[in-house]
Write a structure and sequence with these properties.
InterPro entries: RecG_C_sf (IPR038475), Schlafen_AlbA_2_dom (IPR007421), Schlafen_AlbA_2_dom_sf (IPR038461). It holds the Pfam family SLFN_AlbA_2. There is one protein chain. This protein has 12 helices and 16 strands. It is an alpha+beta fold. Strand 1 (20-23), helix 2 (29-41) and strand 2 (44-49) form a beta-alpha-beta unit. Helix 2 (29-41) packs across helix 3 (62-78), helix 8 runs antiparallel to helix 9 (276-289) and helix 9 (276-289) runs antiparallel to helix 12.
Length: 406
């Protein structure tokens, strides 16, 4: 908003309104959190630091500028729930430095120390109950509209990369047909007069979806031992990109450290720590069923000497329980599920996991995870729901060599 310095200065001369707020210096943290959340809950806006209430440009000073930017980022992360996505820019005008904080209209409804606030005119107001209810519903936190079909603020048509979205468009389509299909497939959704990427469109058709949706990637760590101890951390990776790439990268990470033991009886007998078919199903489930509105956490994969742990943000959808996982189905992200069911798995992996597409929607995934892992290790994998996160633990098989751990 107000991308050019000239446009911004003209706005300063006009004074504060529903789109811009002036701050002579960095305000108190709670007050700043309230201002940011109020803009995010409305149509977005700009906080301009270094400008007096009467529109006089006084500047911050270089030292205050750096500290102010740091504090703004911390406030968005620590004082607003869920955290707010912002853009900061340092500006110079007439020898004076300013800090511009650009707050886009959010996907979510945010609570700050002052409650649920929204920008109205040149001030912020706590939202009445009926207004808050309507906002929650319209932004899908009431789950009236699937979250993965919601518009992602600050994206454009060009946010979707052709190499990725072409997979969902029929071959030979004209440019006009491509635009129509992107909209029909809900990869692009209307936001007022323009089209923007949907959550599913961003997750499947952009090489850095976490630039727009915080923590929408898989973090993997391998420890040589049974505890999370940095001294025994052997490898750590963050897997970004479209969801299918994240799944494959995480799969290959496990494959790299999935140790195999062997014993010679009549012929040669081999045993791996984990069923890679079960691992594949677990990774797909974690990616497609996680709650992407939970931006405070990421999907995490931890490998230890005796087990594999996978955590996915979000409670189980609808009325599904941990005990009913094998027998029930509930798809949180229907659009994502449809898109992943159209993407083929590379041939060498397809043979290992006995699956042609990333998602085949037969409801067999949890059963495969439980049965194949139990047959290999003798221990039943454990699902747990703790607060708003689903955890899966798969136990490693013992070595075929007596007295040795895999």
């Amino acid at each position: 908003m107000f991308d050019s310095l000239t446009e911004l200065v003209e706005k300063v001369h006009l004074g504060e309104d529903s789109t811009i707020e002036f701050k002579r210096q960095l305000p108190r943290r709670d007050s700043l959190a309230d201002e940011i959340a109020a803009f995010a809950n409305a149509r977005g806006g700009v906080i301009l630091m270094g400008v007096d209430d009467n529109g006089e440009i006084v500047g911050l000073g270089q030292r205050n500028l750096d500290q102010s930017e740091k504090t703004v980022v911390e406030v968005c992360r620590d004082s607003i729930e869920p955290q707010v996505s912002i853009f900061t820019e340092k500006l110079r005008f007439d020898g004076k430095v300013l800090l511009k904080v650009d707050i886009p209209r959010s996907l979510f409804v945010h609570k700050s120390p002052g409650g649920y606030l929204a920008r109205q005119g040149s001030s912020k107001r706590e939202m009445p109950t009926d207004q808050l209810a309507r906002l929650l519903q319209s932004r899908s936190q009431a789950r009236i509209i699937s979250f993965d079909e919601q518009v992602v603020p600050n994206t454009t048509r060009n946010t979707l990369h052709k190499d990725f979205y072409q997979r969902f468009i029929r071959e030979g389509a004209t440019e006009e047909e491509v635009e129509d299909l992107l909209q029909k497939r809900r990869l692009l959704v209307r936001d007022g007069p323009v089209y923007r990427a949907s959550v599913a469109g961003l997750l499947m058709c952009h090489d850095r979806p976490d630039d727009y949706l915080y923590n929408s990637f898989i973090q993997a760590v391998f420890y040589r031992g049974k505890t999370k101890d940095a001294n025994y951390q052997i490898d750590a990776k963050d897997f970004r990109g479209p969801l299918d790439r994240q799944i494959m990268d995480a799969y290959k990470f496990v494959e790299r450290y999935n140790q195999v033991s062997a014993r010679k009886d009549v012929g040669r007998t081999e045993r791996s720590q984990y069923s890679m078919r079960a691992v594949f199903e677990a990774l797909v489930n974690a990616a497609v069923h996680r709650d992407y509105s939970k931006t405070v956490s990421k999907t995490r994969l931890f490998m230890f000497s005796d087990r594999l742990e996978l955590s996915s943000p979000g409670a189980l959808a609808n009325t599904l329980t941990v005990e009913r996982l094998r027998y029930g189905q509930a798809t949180r992200n229907e659009l994502l599920a449809r898109l992943l069911s159209e993407i083929t798995v590379e041939d060498n992996v397809s043979r290992q996991v006995a699956r042609r597409y990333f998602l085949e929607r037969r409801g067999e995934g949890v059963g495969i995870i439980l049965d194949e892992s139990t047959a290999l290790s003798g221990k039943v994998p454990v699902y747990e729901q703790i607060d708003e996160t689903l955890f899966l633990t798969i136990f490693a098989a013992k070595s075929l060599q007596p007295g040795q751990d895999l």
